[in-house]
Amino acid sequence: MTLPLRIAPSILASDFSKLGQEVADVVEAGADWVHLDVMDGHFVPNISFGPDVIKSLRRYTDAFFDCHLMIAPVDPYLEAFAKAGCDGITVHAEAGPHLHRSLQTIRSLGKKVGVTLNPATPVSVLEDVLDDVDLILVMSVNPGFGGQKLIPSALDKISRIKSLIGDRPIEIEVDGGITAETIGAARKAGANVFVAGSAVYKGANKNAYRDNISALLKAAEA
Ligand SMILES: O=C(CO)[C@@H](O)[C@H](O)COP(=O)(O)O
Ligand SMILES: [Fe+2]
């Protein structure tokens, strides 16, 4: 099944001193989704922001909030992120601690359900949860930081996931090192949602963001 191509800028690369404006600007510049990287300093070696910040960002846009939770254990916090205004909630396969329970909880909260695979997480973890997810997030870098280089083995992993899901309407999202140079290969492999932090937020103003998103779209469609 062919799902729409979506650009999901990660606000991790934005200017945190004016986060609300940065979210509004990137949506005005053509972002389809807003990617929110939540880090706990435990599951990943960095700390970003939590549900209160997401709640305050909700005032700046109605765009889809794609919440990538890099926290463990994640289950105790799912409801807080749902209430904060996340539209999609994505948990790492290892973070639950029980993946199936986490996915069922997100479903029961009425949100789009996502599972994330780290570079070393095998595709086989998806086999028994395929009918419980709306989105599979493939990390193409080790999670924790923006501005890293895409790990090439992620492309083959995306192709294998694409075959595995068959005609299920599951979004395949790729996250890490997506630039105008790498987006085409990720699209060919089968991804339809592209997270891009540093490639979108370079230039630090709305016009630059618009140009950066256009360049990504052009490269993805080439
Ligand atoms: O989840 C993560 C990092 O853990 C990402 O969403 C990055 O923030 C993407 O940043 P770039 O690689 O596009 O700069
Ligand atoms: Fe992310």
From TrEMBL:
Which InterPro entries is this protein grouped with?
Answer: Aldolase_TIM, Ribul_P_3_epim, Ribul_P_3_epim-like, RibuloseP-bd_barrel
Pathway listed: Carbohydrate degradation
Q: Which domain of life is it from?
A: Bacteria
| GO BP of this protein | pentose catabolic process; pentose-phosphate shunt
Q: What class of enzyme is it?
A: isomerase
Q: Name one GO molecular function term.
A: D-ribulose-phosphate 3-epimerase activity
Q: Which reaction does it catalyse?
A: D-ribulose 5-phosphate = D-xylulose 5-phosphate
Q: Which residues are a divalent metal cation-binding? A: 35, 37, 68, 175
Q: What keywords sit in the KW lines?
A: Carbohydrate metabolism, Cobalt, Isomerase, Manganese, Metal-binding, Zinc
One Pfam match, given by its short name, reads: Ribul_P_3_epim
Q: Which residues bind substrate?
A: 10, 68, 144-147, 175-177, 197-198
* A GO CC term assigned to this protein in UniProt: cytoplasm
Q: How is the cofactor bound?
A: Binds 1 divalent metal cation per subunit.
According to its UniProt record, which residues of this chain constitute the active site?
37 (proton acceptor), 175 (proton donor)
**Required cofactors, per record?**
Zn(2+); a divalent metal cation; Fe(2+); Co(2+)
Q: What is its EC number?
A: 5.1.3.1
The text of the family note is: Belongs to the ribulose-phosphate 3-epimerase family.
Please describe what this protein does.
Answer: Catalyzes the reversible epimerization of D-ribulose 5-phosphate to D-xylulose 5-phosphate.
Entries under PANTHER family matching the protein: RIBULOSE-5-PHOSPHATE-3-EPIMERASE
Q: Supply the name of the protein.
A: Ribulose-phosphate 3-epimerase
Source organism of this protein record? Aliirhizobium cellulosilyticum
What is the primary gene name for this protein? Answer: rpe
